[in-house]
Design brief:
17% helix
């Protein structure tokens, strides 16, 4: 639970461009100090956010794709859905297909815990 209200949801939908022709985009914790220049360097480790649906003052559904490089030999695709609601409810959805050698239903709790801390 996160204390949200309709003002915060409206601000979030605006920041993510939910009502723009081209929604979402890449987001980083870095500040672009030269935003008026015509060069674009995309640093490694950005998160691509896509707005799936929203009601400007009530809720927003987004999908986030984390594009962080992993060590050689490790394949990790991180796509998950997030729903923010005006009453403070935050729901996360993630489909886990494999961890290490384990596939689908054979994933142990200790490997699942490692994945959860990584996300």
């Amino acid at each position: 639970w996160i204390p949200f209200g309709c003002n915060q949801i409206m601000q979030l939908t605006q920041k993510l461009g939910a009502h723009d022709r081209i929604q979402g985009g890449y987001f980083s914790s870095e500040i672009d100090r030269h935003s008026t220049e015509t060069s674009l360097e995309i640093p490694v480790g950005l998160t691509k956010v896509t707005v799936n649906s929203c009601d400007a003052a009530q809720w927003i559904n987004i999908e986030a794709e984390v594009e962080f490089p992993e060590d050689e030999g490790i394949t990790q695709v991180e796509n998950f859905g997030i729903r923010y609601q005006r009453d403070g409810t935050v729901l996360y959805g993630l489909k886990l297909e494999a961890v290490m050698e384990a596939i689908l239903n054979d994933i142990s709790l200790d490997n699942l815990a490692r994945v959860m801390t990584d996300i």
